[in-house]
Amino acid sequence: MLHRIRDSVLGVLVASTFATMAAAAPSQLSIMAPAAPGGGYDQTARSIQSVLQESKTVPNVQVTNVPGAGGAVGLAQFANNAKGDATQLIVGGYVMVGALIANKSPVTLDNVTPLARLTGESDAIVVPVNSPLKTMEDLVKALKADPGKVSWAGGSAGGVDHIAVGLIAKKVGVDPTKINYVPYSGGGEALAAILGGQVTAGISGVSEFEGQVAAGKLRLLAITGGKRLPNVNAPTLKESGVDVEVENWRMVAAAPGITAAQKADLLSTIETMVKSEGWKKILTSKNWADSYLAGDAFATYLKNQTADTTQVLKDIGVLK
Amino acid sequence: MTSLQSERRLDRAAFGIAVALAAVAIVIAVDTYNLPEGIASYARVGPRAFPYAIAAAMAVLAIATAIAAWRGKFPERPKDEYGPFYWIVGGLLVQLALIGWAGFAIATGAVFAATARAFGRGPLWMTYLIGVGISLAIWLAFAKGLSLVLPAGPLERMF
Amino acid sequence: METFQFLAQGLSVALQLDNLLFGLVGVTLGTAVGVLPGIGPALTVALLLPITFKLDPAGSLIMFAGIYYGSMYGGSTTSILLNAPGESASVVTALEGNKMARVGRGGPALATAAIGSFVAGTIATIGLALLAPWVVEFALAMGPGEYFALMVLAFATVSAAFGDSTLRGLTALFLGLTLGLVGIDLQSGQARLSFGMPDLFDGIEVTTVAVALFAVGETLFIACGGDRTQETITPVKGSLWMSREDWKRSWKPWLRGTIIGFPIGAMPAGGAEIGTFLSYATEKQLAKNPEEFGHGAIEGVAGPEAANNASAAGTLVPLLTLGLPTSATAAIMLAGFQQYGLQPGPLLFVNRPELVWGLIASLFIANIMLLVLNLPLIGLWVRVLAIPRPWLYGGILTFATLGTLGANPSLVELGMLLLFGLMGYGLRRFGYPIAPVVVGLILGPLAEQQLRRALSISQGDPMILFGSPMAVIMLSIALIATFGPLLWRLFKPEGAPSSLAGNED
Q1: For the segment C461-498, what is each residue's pLDDT rounded down to a tens digit?
Q2: CA–CA distance, C76 with C84 (Å, rounded to integer)
Q3: A54-92 pLDDT tens trace
Q4: Which of A247, B27, C114, C249 is the most exposed place for a label (fewest CB within 10 A)?
């Protein structure tokens, strides 16, 4: 016990005193998951924690959960409290981008230092197995005929699922404000509505539907990512003639106001982690795609995503 | 049930409730009126329908409550002592002020001591120390034993 | 009969000595943590689940089953004894249970809760084992139209919890509905009654409101009452155990509670609370002496407690057969199952029957252990009431803040605990009932979302609400429940209330 106390006291001292020096990986990190335990952000944060600790890259990593408003509550707290502290990280993602815009949050991703995109998950478009719609082309045809008759079950209004449906409508020449999108809270409820044939089609993360597709209860029409997935037998939207590419990605960001040297250290720590065997194992077990994109390239990507998402949210009418 | 004529005394506190309910109705109505239009939905029942209905019902309830207060139809209220009330609320406020930086035990000890004081047990320094002790034990059990995230302060960091 | 073979195999594993020990530890831990005011089943399971990972799969499943059932049961104890429910599903239990405890009948109240939980848990677990495929079919057939009908039915029966004034009951209900408006509207993404505060965007936490209104409000009310409230609590008067009369009045509510709770728990948008509301209303409607409700009617404890625990098994139906987590607790369990390399879903029964049946067998064992553990403890629990009040209520508030902070570590949440605590005191002071606030907060948003979902799917055609026999039946029952008392008087045979004339002791 005494050892533990001394070590952690030392750890804090070392971290705070030498944080400004251009050393290698920090000896301790604190990662905020701006969501409740169990969700995507939480799992991402805890995966980073376990890989960094087990590979001894960073001996002491803590995860804190601050749920609320699609990540906006956690982000605001992080931007205020962590300023200039290079030992603090926050996990975020595409859902957060949309939530920040839709809620007109005063704190945005400009208030933190984005480091890298880590993982991506494609959405899947499914119909009940007894549906007359056999392919994505059939679904597009039905959508063009009468958008109101095609009801979509998916996640919250303005979320990645809603955005994907809006983009599909726009690309095939249907007014995106005319889509009949029915939001459900939590994956389970939406899945039940699709299985029960309450709605025409469903859209959510690929992993949500995997079990039902394997059991032959749902038909997978297409995935929204840019590339086919190894274990998933379905075309991409582009292959189905709809020029849309949406992925639900997750990232890690550092505190605002850190020095360039500190940022470089954190980036190299993240890169070490992404290249490790432990991280690859986690990606496979959780069915996450490796979408590692770091530094300036990621910053540019983030800027484009924010602009694009704002436009889509306006198109589908969530944002005025 | 008292008969209609028996008491024609205005129950001021109950009348205050009626005013508060009316205020709630107005707040809901104004907030809903200012709601952006949002997504055009096929449902025809948008995000405004329920709030307006609830505001209307609240307004009716406010009027009914005012009438009930006017007729003195609220149940008899025995006299309450307010000393204990201020102690407990004060304890919770102190906890709210302390917990951000002083940690779970130091802050929650105040709640425990203030509640004990409200029920007539003192002295405050002793009940506070007992409260801090109990809270620290809880913190150790839940934060260390079960890794629940609870605010930590100087006291907790010693462990 | 492959089914029984698997079940027997599961039971033989669960009955090994070390596994029994794990089960006992799980039940004890689950009850001990679940009993703390403010800490409901979801938090309890989340906290204790990691402990089970250290064991082999069989042992960990058994311990897990114990934790789950233990935490579901634990909430009722503080409801009954202290009028401080630790979670929303035991709010109804407090209505009659606490009234019983105040006149020295805490023992029978706890006993009927424990035995009712056992009966309901056992029957519902059998239902899970034998009927899961059919129950899940029924649950999936529930569309938004049917859910809306269910909510209407629940609303129609709320008046059972109104107490002695319709005006004050309705006001409390609409206060709850108002609180339910707060946050981002799921269907449109618009923030309502949030005043630009991001902390309010996710709505108001039901657990915080329940704990504040009951635990904090009750503490304030008792403290301010001074000598007036001093004498009202008698730890034990008469027998600690259930009398013949108590048994006679309890067994039917147990069975009815089970029948109501199990299918509603299995519905993807059902939840444990609605079953307890409906059960309470049913018991009040069917009671031979309904005037006793609100003053400590044992039926009002037996029925809802059975419904609560039956829904715990019901929740496992969609989870095991479809991999659908339908409650916060179930979502945490899903994560737990994945740790054992078990992917709940349509193929689980086919691919890993031994694990599924092992779990079901464990649930049986956990249920029995719960009874064995808790019946002897009743004598100890009622002594809680003998703890001097300064320590007792100091402890209640300490745990209430622990539960609130544990679920959501934010100052805003703690501030809300205080705010709603003040509201709870005010409501009590002016004779408003508390339960309808919680009912409105839970049902309001559900009813609104389901209605708008139904109308969205039907493109605005209201006929979807009456489109299925199930919906029509539920709406009809709602009509009958609203005008029930009238009809009841019309059809009730003469001289019915005879056998129960002398049951007050």
Answers
A1: 888 888 888 899 988 888 887 776 666 666 655 544 43
A2: 9
A3: 777 787 777 777 777 777 888 888 888 888 888 888 998
A4: B27
What DSSP state is assigned to residue B142? Answer: I
Give the pLDDT band of residue C227 (cuts 50, 70, 90). low
**DSSP string covering B35-82:** S------TTS--TTHHHHHHHHHHHHHHHHHHHHHHTT-SPP-PPPPS
Q: Please, are residues C103 and C364 in contact by the beta-carbon 8 Å criterion?
A: no
Q: Which residue has the higher pLDDT, C494 or A258?
A: A258
Range of the domain at A152: 121-223
CA separation for the pair A226, A247 (Å, rounded): 8
| pLDDT over 80 (residue B102) | yes
The answer to whether residues C1 and C363 touch, using CB atoms and an 8 Å cutoff, is no
How far apart CA A103 and CA C142 sit, in angstroms, is 32
pLDDT confidence of residue C341: 65
Residues B36-77: tens digit of each pLDDT: 766 667 777 888 899 999 999 999 999 999 999 888 778 877
Q: Which residues of B touch A320 (CB under 8 A)?
A: 36-37
Q: If DSSP codes are grouped into helix, strand and coil, which group holds residue C111?
A: helix
Chain A: residue whose CA lies nearest to B159:
A5
Q: Residue B5: pLDDT band by 50, 70, 90 thresholds?
A: very low
Q: Do B149 and A177 touch (CB under 8 A)?
A: no
SS3 call for C26: helix
* Predicted ipTM of the assembly: 0.91
| Same domain? B56 vs B93 | no
Distance from CA of residue A316 to its chain's centroid?
20
Domain assignment present for residue B153? The answer is: yes
* Chain C residues contacting A via beta carbons under 8 Å: 46, 139-144, 184-189, 191, 198-199, 201-202, 268-269, 318, 322-326, 330-332, 335, 343-347, 408-410, 449, 453, 456-457, 459
A152 and A292 in a single domain? The answer is no
* Tokens 């939207």 found at: A237
Total domains in the fold of chain B:
2
Greatest mean pLDDT among A44-48, C49-53, C331-335 = A44-48
Half-sphere exposure of C52 (CA within 13 A, CB side): 35
User: What is the mean pLDDT of the segment spanning C208-235?
Assistant: 79
Contacts 24+ apart (CB under 8 A), B137-142: B138/B104, B138/B108, B138/C398, B138/C399, B138/C402, B139/B103, B139/B104, B139/B105, B142/C47, B142/C402, B142/C406
* Phi-psi category of residue C84: left, alpha or beta, with phi > 0 → left and psi -120 to 50 → alpha: beta
Statement: residue C234 has pLDDT above 80: no
**Parallel, antiparallel or unpaired: strands A218-223 and A113-128:** antiparallel
Summarised one tens digit per residue, pLDDT across range C251-264 is: 999 999 999 999 88
Terminal CA-CA length for chain C: 51
Three-state secondary-structure class, residue A293 = strand
Question: Which amino acid, C152?
Answer: V
Which residues in chain A (227-256) have CB-CB distances under 8 A to chain B? none
Q: Which amino acid is at C283?
A: E
Task: For residue C237, count other CB atoms closer than 10 A to its CB.
Answer: 12
Give me the residue spans of the domains in chain C: 2-489
Domain carrying residue B43: 12-70
Is there a single domain that holds both residue B129 and residue B65? no
Considering the domain boundaries, does residue A229 fall inside one? Answer: no
pLDDT at residue A35 tops 90: no
Q: Which residues of A71-106 are buried (b: 16+ CB within 10 A; e: fewer)?
A: bbbbbbbbbeebeebbbbbbbbbbbbbbbbbbbebe
**Is omega for the bond preceding C290 within 30 degrees of 0, making it cis?**
no
A242 in a structural domain: no
- Which residues in chain B touch residue C217, judged by CB atoms under 8 angstroms apart? none
